[in-house]
Amino acid sequence: MPANQPPVDPAIRLQLLDLLAGFLRTQALHTVAVLGIADIVGDEPVTVEQLAAQVQADPSSLHRVLRVLAGSGVFSEAAPGAFVSTPLSGGLRTDAPLSVRHMAMFQGSDTYLAAGQMLRAVQTGEPTAEMVFGMSFFEHLASDPDRNACFNQAMAGGAGARAAAARDFDWNRVSVVADIGGGNGSVLVGVLGAHEHLSGVVFDQPHVVTAAQPVIEAAGLTERCAVAGGDFFTDELPAADVYVMAQILHDWDDERSLTILRNCRRSIAPDGRLLLLEQVMPDGDTPSYAKLLDLIMLVLLGGKERTESEWRALLAEGGFELLEITPRPATNLIEAAPA
């Protein structure tokens, strides 16, 4: 280091140290999510001793985790050693619409392990999941029913936001919609529930799509919604007026994404529509959750988030014309038509 190099400004140093502590906040959120603390803490103060007794934890250790989270607005220490809920902690409740509880459980475990090898992903250009899990990410989910269930519940938490974006599309001239890679069917169920003239089908891998049937039954949509198992890379897709893909293409690099898009292009009607519910990354230094999500794709799957120009180019190469992007709080509705 040059002799005349000035010392790091103390404020800058503290800011960097705070950024470095992000992994501790992730694990603190994961811990309280697994223990279900947000389901217990409400408007009235609850002591750490009471909480620890209910979740079988050590009171002192639990207190140390909760006070860190309270410093970020997740819970509030209303009195020494006693906590109440806040809007942020409410987002971790199991019964909260759009709950983040299972996302915290999954990102603090499976995703966390893969992200710990990010350097390797940057050096090789390959996802780290296979090194961490001994197999690809989706093979890992298929081999472990508990992890698969946690992942599906994590995705369902955001599916409500994606379904809200999809519901606002003009469905008046549509009869049948297929959710490609539809998981447990949450997005399609939301659309069909809001538009009674529609029928639809959830299409996904056989071990995944089995989770959709209970969701469809609970919504009372068995007469209007079917399920179909298959591979969206190679299998013929269900006939429909509109194909919806909610956060599917971000799982894959451009080559694999083009394979999916070309399969959609082969199956879609000439006047059909493709709706993508995806992030659109801003250019430049603008902060965006999409840029963080892009790193999750890097380590787990080798996929990526994309800018508007990247989406336009990818769709064009896959046989589609990008018609419109409608920004929404949690996602974007990207409408495309066969070119």
Automatic annotation (TrEMBL):
Record-given protein name: O-methyltransferase domain-containing protein
Active site location: 250
Domain O-methyltransferase dimerisation: 17-89
Taxonomy, superkingdom: Bacteria
Endpoints of the signal sequence: none
O-methyltransferase C-terminal domain span: 121-321
MF-aspect GO terms: O-methyltransferase activity; protein dimerization activity
Keyword set, alphabetical order: Methyltransferase, S-adenosyl-L-methionine, Transferase
Biological process, per Gene Ontology: methylation
Stored InterPro entries: COMT-like, COMT_C, COMT_dimerisation, SAM-dependent_MTases_sf, WH-like_DNA-bd_sf, WH_DNA-bd_sf
